[in-house]
Amino acid sequence: PQDSEKAKTFVHAFLKRSMPKMKDEDIQDMLTRKAVVLEHYPKRKTKQKGKKTKGFTAKQRRELRLFEIEPEQQRYAIFLPLHELWKQYIRDLCHGLKPDAQPHMIQSKLLKADLHGAIVTVTKSKCPSYVGITGIILQEFKHVFKIITKEDKLKVVPKLNNVFSLELDGFISYIYGSKFLLRASERSAKKFKLKGTIDL
């Protein structure tokens, strides 16, 4: 048919223009084949490993004083709103501290709760000078609580060998610091076991 001849002529002319160095016999040989596979090899993209953002080391955090509270910020009144937020957080966590609430249920939730903003009192201690210290927890570390007192003094109280009490809506809970030697983030995932007697 005339159309096929035109197509053949067009392809021949196209190949001749595209590959001027190729002989007519080679072009004709290509045309007699059933199919011409045009191969294309894309460049392989090297996978770039996702760069992890490195945080500060413990030494760098100490040098930058990231966790230190400036003396002018060490005032009890500044952190009272934090305490109000903490009270609402605990009420929501425990679905309201009602008189008929199960103490074990509340206690288990408090064990894993965030204590930043809670008002605590040292009720027992092997070191008598710690007994009676009351204030808002500003920072919780693995081994210590940083507490701001009503006298605007920042106290660093170790957890070990101390018993703390906190009161909310008439519910008083006791924290045995020796069994609480965990960071707040680790404590939320820990399973606590009930024990009959606990010593300092």
Folded structure, characterized:
The chain is elongated. The chain starts with a helix and ends in a 13-residue tail after the last helix. By secondary structure, the protein is an alpha+beta fold. It has a domain at 58-189: Ribonuclease P/MRP, subunit p29 (SH3 type barrels, Roll), CATH 2.30.30. The chain contains six helices and six strands. The longest helix has 17 residues, at 2-18. The protein has helices at 2-18, 24-32, 58-64, 80-93, 103-112, 184-187; strands spanning 119-125, 134-140, 144-149, 154-158, 162-168, 171-176. Helix 1 packs across helix 2 (24-32). The mean pLDDT is 81. Helices cover 30% and strands 19% of the residues. A six-stranded antiparallel beta sheet has the order 4-3-2-1-5-6. Its main location: nucleus. GO terms for molecular function: ribonuclease P RNA binding. Keywords: Nucleus, Phosphoprotein, tRNA processing. Component of ribonuclease P, a ribonucleoprotein complex that generates mature tRNA molecules by cleaving their 5'-ends. Pfam families: RNase_P-MRP_p29.
Might you state the CATH topology name of the domain at 58-189? SH3 type barrels
CATH architecture of the domain at 58-189: Roll
Structural class label: alpha+beta
CATH superfamily heading of the domain at 58-189: Ribonuclease P/MRP, subunit p29
- Bin the helical content: 25-40%
- Give the class-level CATH name of the domain at 58-189: Mainly Beta
Count of helix runs: 6
Strand order of the largest sheet: 4-3-2-1-5-6
Give Rg in angstroms. Answer: 37 Å
Strand content: 15-25%
GO molecular function: ribonuclease P RNA binding
Protein name: Ribonuclease P protein subunit p29
Family: Belongs to the eukaryotic/archaeal RNase P protein component 1 family.
Subcellular location: Nucleus, Nucleolus
